[in-house]
Amino acid sequence: MARISLSTFAPLSSPLLRCSSSPQFKSRIFLKTLNFASPSASANPKVVVTRERGKNGKLIDALANRGIDCLELPLVQHTQLPDFNKLSFVLSNNEFDWIVITSPEAGAVFLDAWIAAGTPKVQIGVVGAGTASVFEKIQPPVKQSLNVAFAPSKAIGKALAAELPNLGNARCTVLYPASAKASTEIEEGLANRGFEVMRLNTYTTEPVSHVDQMVLDLALAVPVIAVASPSAIRAWVSLIPEGQQWDNAVACIGETTALVAKKLGLKNTFFPANPGIEGWVDSILEALQVQNQLQKV
């Protein structure tokens, strides 16, 4: 299976790569400009994957195992904010009943600061399995200091805020390192239940600064675009040429992103009940099946 890949770090020797050969870059890498090598005429991508380069590997491999080619088109970039520098200090000098992590990127940023703070003992509450997977890479004995102890019944922020256990303290303290773009739903929901919440905006998400027109034209013709965040779907909508009717399918990683897609007028929106790679792949397959049926009508 083929992956059409875009990168600024080094020119590709060939525009076509095997889907399983996904390079792994650190989470802090962000893209300023996307360069494009013209794809082979035989390339026939069915899904556009839109996370930052180096973070699409699992999804691409899962789709490759089902015979589905992908076009890799990063739509957003992550940059650290001043609160990132505060995070390791806060972890070194304070104890919290819970650390709340609501996305893989927030988890990766937290881990950098936690290691810099000397890996103090912490108890983590995550929004779902996709976020929890970030912590599976930690190696023992360091892993003994980090306990992923809670995930809500439904992988959305509202459920986390409603279900996070109060440990019976007079004031149950929560550290919430998050994207500056994240809503206030988590801290407000917890505060209403009597939790004391410290939020640190450790990073932000911005659209990539440039997409080659050839890439965009190809992506617009692909049946399904897979998105993992509200920022990504907003970036995609901003790239659709004014006046063009784009009605292909959007496969979202979860309900939160899907709701934003629908608010932006995208009608063919699919998402799993529980966010994560497996559910996301199922939603992509469902979207492809529906698109195939529509093309036959």
TrEMBL record:
<dbReference type="InterPro" id="IPR039793">
    <property type="entry name" value="UROS/Hem4"/>
</dbReference>
<comment type="function">
    <text>Catalyzes cyclization of the linear tetrapyrrole, hydroxymethylbilane, to the macrocyclic uroporphyrinogen III.</text>
</comment>
<keyword id="KW-0627">Porphyrin biosynthesis</keyword>
<protein>
    <recommendedName>
        <fullName>Uroporphyrinogen-III synthase</fullName>
        <ecNumber>4.2.1.75</ecNumber>
    </recommendedName>
</protein>
<dbReference type="InterPro" id="IPR003754">
    <property type="entry name" value="4pyrrol_synth_uPrphyn_synth"/>
</dbReference>
<dbReference type="GO" id="GO:0006782">
    <property type="term" value="P:protoporphyrinogen IX biosynthetic process"/>
</dbReference>
<comment type="similarity">
    <text>Belongs to the uroporphyrinogen-III synthase family.</text>
</comment>
<dbReference type="GO" id="GO:0009507">
    <property type="term" value="C:chloroplast"/>
</dbReference>
<dbReference type="GO" id="GO:0004852">
    <property type="term" value="F:uroporphyrinogen-III synthase activity"/>
</dbReference>
<dbReference type="Pfam" id="PF02602">
    <property type="entry name" value="HEM4"/>
</dbReference>
<comment type="pathway">
    <text>Porphyrin-containing compound metabolism; protoporphyrin-IX biosynthesis; coproporphyrinogen-III from 5-aminolevulinate: step 3/4.</text>
</comment>
<keyword id="KW-0456">Lyase</keyword>
<dbReference type="GO" id="GO:0006780">
    <property type="term" value="P:uroporphyrinogen III biosynthetic process"/>
</dbReference>
<dbReference type="InterPro" id="IPR036108">
    <property type="entry name" value="4pyrrol_syn_uPrphyn_synt_sf"/>
</dbReference>
<feature type="domain" description="Tetrapyrrole biosynthesis uroporphyrinogen III synthase">
    <location>
        <begin position="59"/>
        <end position="281"/>
    </location>
</feature>
